[in-house]
Amino acid sequence: MITEALLNIVFGPVTWILGMLPDWSPGPELVNLDTSVNGWFDQFAGIGVWVPWPIVGTAIAAVLAAALFNVVARLVLWIYSLVPVFGGGS
User: Fold this and answer.
1) Which of 2, 48, 50, 84: disulfide with 88, CB 3.0–4.6 Å?
2) How many Å apart are CA 76 and CA 83, to the nearest integer?
3) Nearest one of 84, 85, 81 to 73, comparing CA atoms
4) Whole-structure pTM over 0.70, yes or no?
5) What is the pLDDT of residue 48?
6) What range does the domain containing 13 cover?
């Protein structure tokens, strides 16, 4: 009962403000997003003559792999620093 009262206090004004707004429906650019994306791919299909996509894909994959390695290394070092024998605090 207390939790329900707190939720009513928190979400009551939000519900009231949202109830004052008019009804909204998404526009055709959001509803038909698949046709827009297909159109973008169709427009960029001919650019492969000037852009070496395999090299671009390899470079992007290498950057993402380096970022993932960095995150994993930092996570391992953080966990390692929590062990009291190896440099953790109290």
Assistant:
1) 84
2) 11
3) 81
4) no
5) 78
6) 2-86
φ and ψ at 26, to 5 degrees?
-65, 150
**Number of alpha carbons in the 13 Å side-chain half-sphere of residue 66:** 6
Residue 66 amino acid letter:
A
Task: Give the C-alpha separation, 42 to 28, whole Å.
Answer: 19
pLDDT for position 68: 98
Cα–Cα distance, 27 to 25 (Å, whole number): 6
Total domain count for the chain?
A: 1
* Amino acid at position 79, single letter: I
Q: Which residue's structure tokens are 């939000």?
A: 14
Number of C-beta neighbours around residue 26 at 10 A: 9
pLDDT tens per residue across span 1-55: 889 898 889 999 988 998 898 888 877 777 777 777 788 888 877 887 888 888 9
